[in-house]
Amino acid sequence: MGITKDGAACGGLFVSEAVVSAGRLKGSFKDELLRALWQDPNYEVHQMSCEEITIEAVDPGVHARLLSAATVAGAQFDGTKATIHGLEFDWSYDAETQTLHVTCTKKPFWANCGEVESKVRELVKNAKGGI
After folding, report:
1. What SS3 state is found at 50?
2. Which domains does the chain have, with CATH numbers?
3. Measured distance CA(29)–CA(13) in Å, rounded
4. How many C-beta atoms surround the C-beta of residue 97 within 10 A?
5. How many Cβ atoms from other residues are within 10 Å of residue 120's Cβ?
6. Residue 95 — φ and ψ, nearest 5°?
7. What is the pLDDT of residues 77-131, one digit of tens each?
C-alpha cells in the first residue's frame, strides 16, 4: 500500500483525508493510514499560515536583542525565513519605520495562531526590557 500526504492508494482506490476524517474507514487500514500520517513530522491535516503580526516601535537595539534571544532559544535564520521548534516564519524588519513584520507560515497541529502571536509579542516585550 502506498501512502501519500493527500491520502492513500489502496488497490487502485484513492482514499482522501476527508474520508479518513469523516470516519468512513474502519479497522486496520484506518489504523495503518493514520499511523503513517502521524509519523510524518511534516504532515499537518490543515496546513495554514497565521495572519501577519505587525509590531511598531522596534528600534535597532531591540531588534538586535530579539534576534539574539531567538538564536539562543534555537531559531535558525536564512534571509527573511526563520525556523524554531517546528514553526516556520517569514519576517522583515524596516529600520527606517522601526516596524517588525512576522508571519507564521507553518506550525505544528498543537499550536494555534493566537498562541504564536502571543509568544512573538512576549519576546518583543522582553527585548524591549519588559516595557
Report:
1. coil
2. 2-38 (no CATH), 53-127 (3.30.310.50)
3. 13
4. 10
5. 21
6. -65, -30
7. 999 999 998 899 999 999 999 999 999 999 887 788 999 999 999 999 999 986 5
Measured from the Cβ of residue 70, the count of other Cβ atoms closer than 10 Å reads 19
- Which helix (DSSP H) or strand (DSSP E) does residue 70 occupy? helix 60-72
What pTM was computed for the model?
Answer: 0.62
Residue 62 class from Cβ within 10 Å (0-12 exposed, 13-18 middle, 19+ buried)?
A: buried
Cell triple for 25 = 474507514
Cα separation, 50 vs 46, in Å, equals 12
Give the cell for residue 121.
509579542
E strand segments, the chain = 2-4, 7-10, 13-16, 53-55, 76-78, 81-84, 87-94, 99-106
**Which residue shows C-alpha cell 508571519?**
103
- Cell numbers standing for residue 35: 499511523
Q: Among residues 95, 115, 99, which one has the least CA distance to residue 107?
A: 115
Report whether 31 contacts 39 (CB < 8 A): no
